Structure formats: C-alpha cells, structure tokens
Amino acid sequence: MKHRLSFLVLASSLxxxxxAQAQNPVPTRLINSVYLTAGLQGVGLGLGKxxxxxxxxxxxxxxxxxxxxxxxxGTRYQGDIELRSAGAYLDYFPFGGNFRLTTGLAYFGSExxxxxxxxxxxxxxxxxxxxxxxxxxDRIDATVQWPSVAPYVGLGFGHGLSSxxxxxxxxxxxxxxxxxxxxxxxxxxxxxQLGPTADENIRREREELEDAVGDLGFVPSLQxxxxxxF
Length: 230
What we know:
Helices cover 17% and strands 54% of the residues. The protein is α+β, with helices and mostly antiparallel strands. The strands form two sheets. Strands 1-2-3-4-5-10-11-13 form an eight-stranded antiparallel β-barrel. The protein has a two-stranded antiparallel sheet with strand order 7-8. The longest helix is centred in the last third of the chain and has 17 residues, at 198-214.
C-alpha cells in the first residue's frame, strides 16, 4: 500500500510541478503528431499534442495476442494472452528536451487464460500440494485479469518539440498501479480424483495463483515508439 501511495504522490507532484504558464506555446493544431507503439502492452496507434516545449499530452490504444506455455507449482499450462488497453497521458519535459516524466490513466481489458489438461497423455500436475495425473477428461482452467482502470507513472524519451518536424523515435518505462485478479476451477473428473481433500487442495492452488500475481501491485510497462510530427 505504501508503494502505491508513493506512486500516486509522485504523479500528483508531477502535475502540480508543471509551470503555470507554458513556455513557447504551440496553439495551432489540436493534434500535431501520430505514432505507432509496440511493447509489453501490445501494438497500437496514438495521437499526440505538444502544448509547449515542456508540456504535451497523448492518447493511444494497444492490443495483441500471444500463446505460450507456463509452469506453475508443478503444473504445465497452455496460456493465451489477449492484450487490450487505451490510455491518456500527460508528458512533462523538465529540461525542454526529449527526456520526460509521464503520468496518465489507462483502461485495460487484458486477460491471460490458462488451461492444463491431460490431452490423452497422462500429464502430471500439482493441485495445492497434491500430485495427480491428468486423464483425458481432467482439466484445470485459470484466468489472470489486468486491473480494469489504473493510473500510470513513468519516464521516457521522445514526443517532445525538440525532436522537430518529421519522424522521431521514443521509449517509455513505467508501471500502471493496480492489482491483477485471478480465478481457478477444475473439472468434475479431476475433483473426483482428488477425493475427500478436493476442496482444500483447490483452495490452496487458488491461493498459490493469487500469490503469484496479486502481490506485484502494478503492471510493468515498456513501450517503444515511431512517430511523425507535422
């Protein structure tokens, strides 16, 4: 909790630290840059406006999908990640160059779906400390959901007026403050295999999954950009 408060205080301080009157205002277009982005939040498209040499704002949307395998406490899962997010960001360039501090707010619809099944091969698994063999009808389903709305704090380079007109590159490193949420269920055949201790084994497995994703407290973010300023 203290870490989240520290991030939020930093974000608030950044906003209040902005100069009361922007230097070198750029009053022309409502939007004066477009960019493509790629990174941990997927790939996306954004629009930006440099209000002055020290202040700008951006809006972007990101998405994508990824398939991979994950091992969690002795169980091998097939995972499908669906990334969906939209965010609004305020950039502050303290030195009038390309280095910036950024705060913002994002909406997430991202989710990781995990499935462990026997696939007819008798795959071993661990359910809350109990070793089992997954038969043809045995299955474990788990999900990990990103926080639905989360504030952002980070730093980066690019998007500033100093890059001039034309193409430019940028990068962001930061985090979205919020908790991941998880669920876990097992098939009736697997519950039957666990026997009288099924409820306790499943409860422990749920807690292990929650501990794995719930203690982080933020969504790490690393995004790169290629943009065009006009």
